[in-house]
Design goal:
23% strand, four-stranded antiparallel β-sheet, alpha+beta, 4 strands, 1 helix
Length: 87
């Protein structure tokens, strides 16, 4: 499913999802102010991660670094091999 990212000068970046490709779409109307917005070429997944990191940073939080023994026990790797035939 192709998605298109546009940048509204007033409201910022928004993304539209299309079930079928309508060719090379360069402009779209902003969902908030209906202004003509130009397409930007930002990888949507990377943009999502960036937005989340920005949100954490603006909240004054830094990502917590955890040591192995601080992790919840169920996330620990089981010492018992699931493939005992593999040495
Ligand atoms: Zn707008």
């Amino acid at each position: 499913m192709p998605n298109y990212t546009f940048n509204c000068e007033k409201c910022g970046v928004f993304t539209e999802w299309h079930t079928s490709s309508k060719g090379n779409k360069q402009y779209s109307a902003c969902p908030s102010c209906k202004m003509k917005s130009k397409r930007v070429f930002a990888p949507p997944i990377v943009y999502k991660v960036d937005a989340r990191v920005k949100q954490i940073e603006s909240g004054g939080k830094t990502p917590k670094v955890m040591k192995r023994d601080q992790l919840p026990k169920r996330l620990k790797k089981s010492p018992v091999s699931t493939r005992p035939w593999q040495v």
